[in-house]
Amino acid sequence: MNAYLLRPFSSEEVYMAVKDMGSDKSPGLDEVKGALAKKLNGGLSVVEAEAVALLRSLEWAKLLGVLLDSVEIDALSVLNLYFSRKNCFSQLRGLLLDIHVLLSYFPGVSLVHVRKDANRAAHGLARFSLRIDGELVWLEEIPSPIVSVVLME
């Protein structure tokens, strides 16, 4: 069974499952294994939107039965809030606790920060999701209209 890493990103809402190839490079065509792109409803702050994207991506991975090895996020503020969730008394606390519960479904998973340029494909999918109604879901084979978006080379 393959281990995967998850790279969520949200300007609208995008979730990516990427095959863990053990490298620091951006995912290539053969490495990206699936994505869920969906518009985010409501007037959320950037931090709230990033936290919701993380939560939804974990829900999606759990639903698919994906074995996660790592979750990489480029929202350092969300990562810092998550690790200090016990002392968080903002409206995000419930969301952070839900993220914690979902992470517990993936034994040994690590939640780490990555630079924004490590999430190029996710950013491209976020821009692409602005042009779609509903949601876009794909697994294994990348639909031809978004191959260039995923590659972002």
UniProtKB/TrEMBL annotation:
Domain RNase H type-1: 30-128
Pfam families from the UniProt entry: RVT_3 (PF13456)
InterPro entries in UniProt: RNase_H-like_dom_plant, RNase_H-like_EbsB-rel, RNaseH-like_sf, RNaseH_domain, RNaseH_sf
Alphabetical list of CDD domains matching this protein: RNase_H_like (cd06222)
GO molecular function: nucleic acid binding; RNA-DNA hybrid ribonuclease activity
Protein name stated in the entry: Ribonuclease H-like domain containing protein
Taxonomic source organism: Trema orientale
